[in-house]
Write a structure and sequence with these properties.
Radius of gyration: 19 Å
Order of helices and strands: EEEEHEEEEHEEHEEHEEEEHH
Strand content: 15-25%
Organism: Streptomyces yaizuensis
Number of strands: 16
Structural class: alpha+beta
Domain DNA ligase D polymerase: 28-260
Number of helices: 6
Pfam family, one: LigD_Prim-Pol
InterPro entries: LigD_pol_dom, MtLigD_Pol-like, NHEJ_LigD
Shape: globular
Keywords: Ligase
C-alpha cells in the first residue's frame, strides 16, 4: 500500500520510498524526498513563479529519462499551473512549484527541476542572465573556474554581480541578476560576453558549440538565455551516478579550484552543512528588495 503523508494540509501519496535511485551510493527515493524537504527553504525561492520543466529519472540515472514541460498525468488540481504559450501550442501550461506540498509532489516523481530565466507573470522578460560553462575533455571543472573568474571581472566592469554554482554535472553555471529585460536582449549580451571571453582567452574559451573545437576548451554556452530554454535550478539534484546537486559556491572556492585546489563537487549529503556554513549564497537572486542593475 502506498503511504499517505500530509504536507501543509495536503495529502500526498509517497511511493517506493526504499527504491534505490543512485546505486553508486545506495541513495533511496525516501532519502531524496528528505533532501528536498529540508532544502525547501533555499530551493523554493528559485522555483517560485517560474514554469518548471522536469527531467524524470524514476529508475535512476541508468534508466530511461523523460524531459517534459507539460503537467504530468495525475497532477493534482491544487498544484498551480501557468499558461506558457508555445509556437506549436498557444494553450500550453506548465507546473509552477510555489510551496512545499507542490515541491514534495514533484519530488515524488524523481525529477530534476529546470526553469527559464523569466517568471510566469512576465514571459520572455528575463530577470537574470545565465552562462553555462561546459568543459571539453581534457579540460574540466578547474578550467571552468578559471573562465568563471574572468567572466566575473568582465561582468563587474558592466556593473553586474555574478554568482557561481556547480551544474551538478561536469561544469559551472554563472547567474547574474538583471533588471527585467527582453530575453532576446539578454541573449545578445550573453553571446557578446562569450565572444569577448574567446578573444581574451583563445586557448581556453569557446563561444561556439562546434564539437570539433571543444577538446581542451570551455564552451561558454550563452544559449540558455533564449526565452524557450531552461537551466537546472539551484539546489536541484541531478540524474547522475552520484547524487550531485547544482549547488552554490563561494568565489574563494572557485579561485582555489582555478589555482589547482580541490575541484568543487557537492553531493546531496553535503548541502545541509554548506547551508549552515555559508547561508544561502544565491539569496541576492531572489531578494525582491534588492535593486537589479540594467544591462549596459
Amino acid at each position: 500500500m502506498t503511504p499517505i503523508t500530509e504536507v501543509a494540509g495536503r495529502r500526498l501519496p509517497l511511493s517506493n520510498l526504499d527504491k534505490v535511485i543512485h546505486p553508486a551510493t545506495g541513495t533511496t527515493k525516501g532519502e531524496i524526498l528528505h533532501y528536498y524537504a529540508v532544502t525547501a527553504g533555499a530551493l523554493l525561492p528559485h522555483l517560485r513563479d517560474r514554469p518548471v520543466s522536469f527531467l524524470r529519472y524514476p529508475d535512476g540515472p541508468g534508466g530511461q529519462l523523460f524531459f517534459t514541460k507539460n503537467p504530468p498525468p495525475g497532477t493534482p488540481a491544487w498544484v498551480r499551473t501557468a499558461p506558457v504559450p508555445h509556437t506549436d501550442d498557444p494553450g500550453a501550461r506548465q507546473v509552477v512549484v510555489d510551496d512545499l506540498p507542490s515541491l514534495m509532489w514533484a519530488a515524488n516523481l524523481v525529477v530534476e527541476f529546470h526553469t527559464p530565466q523569466w517568471t510566469a507573470h512576465a514571459p520572455a522578460v528575463a530577470d537574470r542572465l545565465v552562462l553555462d560553462l561546459d568543459p571539453g575533455p581534457p579540460a574540466g571543472v578547474a578550467e571552468c573556474c578559471a573562465v568563471a573568474l574572468w567572466l566575473r571581472e568582465r561582468l563587474a566592469a558592466d556593473g553586474l554581480d555574478a554568482y557561481a554554482k556547480t551544474s551538478g554535472a561536469k561544469g559551472l553555471h554563472l547567474l547574474v541578476p538583471v533588471a527585467p529585460t527582453p530575453s532576446a536582449r539578454v541573449s545578445a549580451y550573453a553571446k557578446g560576453l562569450a565572444v569577448a571571453g574567446e578573444a581574451a582567452l583563445p586557448r581556453l574559451v569557446l563561444h561556439r558549440m562546434t564539437r570539433a573545437l571543444r577538446p581542451g576548451k570551455v564552451f561558454v554556452d550563452h544559449s540558455q538565455n533564449a526565452a524557450a530554454k531552461t537551466t537546472a535550478a539551484p539546489y536541484t539534484l541531478r540524474a547522475r551516478a552520484l547524487p550531485t546537486v547544482s549547488a552554490p559556491l563561494t568565489w574563494e572556492e572557485v579561485a582555489d579550484a582555478a589555482d589547482g585546489g580541490p575541484v568543487p563537487m557537492v553531493l546531496m549529503g553535503d548541502l545541509a552543512d554548506r547551508l549552515d556554513r555559508y547561508g544561502e549564497l544565491l539569496a541576492p537572486l531572489t531578494d525582491p528588495g534588492r535593486a537589479r542593475p540594467p544591462l549596459p
